[in-house]
Amino acid sequence: MKKHLFAVLFLLAAALLWWLSLAPRRHQMAVAEGKKPQVVASGYVPYTLAKQIAGDLAQVSMLLPANAEPHSFEPTPGALIAVKNADLFVYVSDRIEPWAKDVLASAGEQTAVVQAAQYAAASDDPHVWMDFDNTQKIARAIAFALIQKDPSNRAAYGANLKAFEKELAELKEAYQKGLVSCRSRQVVHVGHLAFGNLTKNYNLSLSALAGSSHDGENSVRRVAELIEFIKKNQIQTIFTEETLSPRLSAAVAEETGAQVLPLYTVEHVSKDDFDRGVTYGELMRRNLESLQRGLECQA
């Protein structure tokens, strides 16, 4: 009997520690009754996830301007003030946003912090949201943080999370079915290595022009190597990021005869997409359509 009781207590303690591990850092002071939590997101990934989980229950803003490059962004004094006054600050990681440490230094005592990468599986690719399982864990962490700040709306946040998890499950299934039978499995990306976590999950091979960020220039040698790779492997389609200048991909396409299709990193979006409030799910569905078309996948 004692052994059974000990086992039950041990499991309860382990469950409590796991739950607490999901809690955002800093103080868990709830907002005043009737007040909307002020949520500040570093860039579009945490922004769109927070918007979808919070709905109209929180005021969500984003530090990164639409169409801006997250790796080299420099926070303004206004950004520091916004985080200082925020109830919740959500960012991806120091690798994606090396400027985040400066912003965190200005956070107020009431500011809870969610670092998305903390909830993702270990990976060499810092673009952790390209794995749907990671995205689900990040969404759960955001929901938990919102409930801590606004417990009176716990049920609504939970319902929004459940709806988002359903959408993720449907996306995951669509990718599994949509990319299982393709003429090519070579994803040649005239951009930076943002899709490694996506391609590895669906047995696709990824070649990219640049590393994990846009820092540095694309050397003439690297461009020449990529063109040679495309010709040698008879690649019919190349992909480029939606917010990059089309000149480089157009030049590669002209040299190789390949068509160009867009892929969406989600970490930054066009002004038009931002104004329309395009969601994570919509951008990932666009990616699936491009991949199926470019790799000639059977429906």
Q: Can you tell me about this structure?
A:
By secondary structure, this protein is of the alpha/beta class. It has two domains: 27-175, 3-Layer(aba) Sandwich (Rossmann fold); 178-294, 3-Layer(aba) Sandwich (Rossmann fold). It has eleven helices and eight strands. The strands form three sheets. It has a four-stranded parallel β-sheet, sandwiched between helices. Strands 5-6 form a two-stranded parallel sheet. Strand 3, helix 4 (100-104) and strand 4 form a beta-alpha-beta unit. The model is unreliable at 8-26 and 211-217 (pLDDT under 50).
Proportion of residues in β-strands: 5-15%
Nearest-integer average pLDDT = 88
The biggest sheet amounts to:
4 strands, parallel
List how many beta strands DSSP finds. 8
**Quaternary structure:** single chain
- What is the CATH level 1 assignment of the largest domain? Alpha Beta
Query: What's the helix count?
Result: 11
Query: Distance between termini?
Result: 57 Å
Category from helices, strands and their pairing = alpha/beta
Spans of 5+ residues with little confidence (pLDDT < 50)?
8-26, 211-217
Q: Helical amount among residues, as a percent range? A: 40-55%
Give the strand order of the largest sheet, numbering strands 1, 2, ... along the chain.
Answer: 2-1-3-4
Task: Report the radius of gyration as a whole number of Å.
Answer: 21 Å
The global form is globular
- For the record, the CATH architecture of the largest domain stands as 3-Layer(aba) Sandwich
- Helix and strand succession? HEHEHEHEHHEHEHEHEHH
CATH homologous superfamily of the largest domain, by name?
Answer: Nitrogenase molybdenum iron protein domain
Overall domain count:
2
If you consult CATH, what is the topology of the largest domain? Answer: Rossmann fold
